[in-house]
Amino acid sequence: MKNKSSNQQNFFVSEEEKVINWTDFQSELKKNFGEEIYSSWLKNITLIKEYNDYLVLGVPTRFFRDWIVSRYLDKILELIKTFKLSLTRVEFKIIEDQKSVKDEFRLDEFNKVTEIKDSILNYNRLNPNLNFSNFIKGTSNEVALSYSKKVCEQASRYNPLYIYGGVGLGKTHLLNAIGLELQSIKEVMFISAERFMYHFIKSIKKNDMVNFKDFFRKSSVFIIDDIQFIRGKESLQEEFFHTFNSLLDKGSQIVISADRPPMKLDRVQERIKSRLSGGLIIDIDVPDLDLKKNIIKDKINNLQNQFKEHINITDEVVDFISVEAKTNIRELIGVLNRVIAFSRVHKRILTINDCKNILKDVFNQAKIVTVDKIQNTVSNFFNISLNDMLSQRRSRPLARPRQIAMFLAKKMTTRSLPEIGRRFANRDHTTVIHAVKTITKLSEKDDEMKKNLIQIKSLLLEN
User: Fold this and answer.
1) Which of 65, 171, 254, 393 is 20 to 30 A from residue 450's alpha carbon, by CA?
2) Where are the alpha helices (DSSP H) in 223-328?
3) Top CATH class, 289-363
4) What is the pTM of this model?
C-alpha cells in the first residue's frame, strides 16, 4: 500500500495519478524543435505538477513564458497528448526557486488553464514594448505612423488600413501599437496570417469550423500581419474573404500589413485584392540617413538605461553604420549589436576601420534581387508603367521589356520557371522559356541589348 502522507506532501497527488516521464518528454522536445530552440528556450521548462487532465509547467521568467506561449505552445501541447491522451491543457507558472514553489503550491492556485482547443488565444498577445511612444518617426514612415494613430482615434474611418513595405521596416511595430492603444476599450484580435492559416487547417481537421468562424468574427478590431502568406491557398482565401466581409458588415476596424501593395499580391483572389484596395493604403519606405541615426541613438540610450552602463560609440561610427546598413531597420539594429558586443569584449572605443573588419561579412554580401525589384527596375528603365508591362498586350515597346524582366528573373533569382510565370500576370512557364531564349540570342548579336542588360543589372545591384 502506498504512503498517503507522502502523497499528500507531494501536492495532494492522488493514488491513481500517473506522472509523465519528463526526461523522455524533454528528449522529444529536442527532437521536434531542434537543438538551438531547445537549448535556448525549451530546456528551461520544468514539470511542477501533473493532474488528471492538465500539467503545471514552470518557467524562469515572464519573458520566457510569453515567448514559449506565442511560438511553441501548440506543438508542445500536441506532444504532451502523445505521452498521455487525457492531458488536454497546460498552465505555466513563473518560478525563481522551483523547490520553494513546490512547497507552497496548491490546487486552488489554478483557476485559469489553457486548453488545447482554445490555445489560439495565446497567439493574440500584444508586445508591450512595441508601442507608439518608442516608434522612431522619419520621413519614410511618418505617414504610416500618422494614420495608425488616427485609426485609434476614429475607428472605421479608414477601413481597412493597409500598411505595406519591406522586411524589418516597422510594420509589425505599428500594428502592435494600434492593438495596445485600443485593447482597453475594444475587443482586439492580433494574429499573423501564418497563425490564421495554422488554426484554419487545424479547425478543418477537427471539424470545428463553427468555433473558428465565431472566434475570428467577434472582434471589434481585427489586426492581421503579413497577409501575403495566404497566397496560393484557395480554401484559406475563401475563409479570409468571408471573415473580412463579416467584420466590415458589423463595423469592425481591420488593419492589415503586407510586403507589397494589394494589387501586387500574386496568387490571391481578385475579389480579395479589390477589398483590400478599398481602404487606405500606406507604404513604409527604407529609412533615410537621419532616421537610421536616430534609431541607433535611441537604441544606445535604451541599452544604457537597461543595463546601467555607458556605451561609448563615436559619432563617426554611428555615421558609418547608418550609411552602410542599407536594407532595413532590423539589419541596422543587428549591425549595431555586433559593434557594441565587440566594444564590450575588447573594452575599447572602436574606429571605423575596426567596424569595417567586424562587419565585412555583412556589408560585402551579395545584394538580394527579387522579381518585384526586377519588374520595377525594368519598367522604370524603359519608362513604361508596371501595369502595362505585365498586361497581355503584345506590342514591341511592351513585349521586349517584359521579356528582359523574365530573362533577368531567371538569371538573377532562385525562382522556378512556373513561379516566374505566375509573377508575370499568371503566364505559362513556356512563355518564360521563350523570353529567356529570345533575350539570350539578342544579347549575343545586338550591342544595344547587351548595353541595356548591363545597365539594368548595375541598377539592380546598386541598391
Assistant:
1) 393
2) 234-249, 270-276, 289-307, 315-324
3) mainly alpha
4) 0.56
Q: Where in the chain is the domain with CATH 3.30.300.180?
A: 4-118
Convert the pLDDT of each residue in 227-250 to its tens digit: 988 888 888 899 999 999 999 999
Rounded to 5 degrees, φ, ψ at 208 are -130, 35
Q: How far apart are CA 386 and CA 379, in angstroms?
A: 6
pLDDT band at 117 (very low <50, low <70, confident <90, very high): very low
SS3 content of the chain, % helix, strand, coil (to 5): 60, 10, 30
Spell out the CATH class of 142-284: alpha beta
The pLDDT mean for the chain works out to: 81
Start and end residues for every CATH 1.10.1750.10 domain found in the chain = 371-462
Helix axes 62-71, 73-83, angle to 10 degrees: 80
**What pLDDT sits at residue 363?**
66
Q: Could you confirm whether domain 4-118 is CATH 3.30.390.30?
A: no
Q: Distances from the Cα of 368 to the Cαs of 245, 248, 371, 403, 413, in angstroms? A: 37, 38, 10, 21, 8
Tell me if 33 sits within 8 A of 42, measured CB to CB. yes
Percent of the chain at pLDDT > 90 equals 25
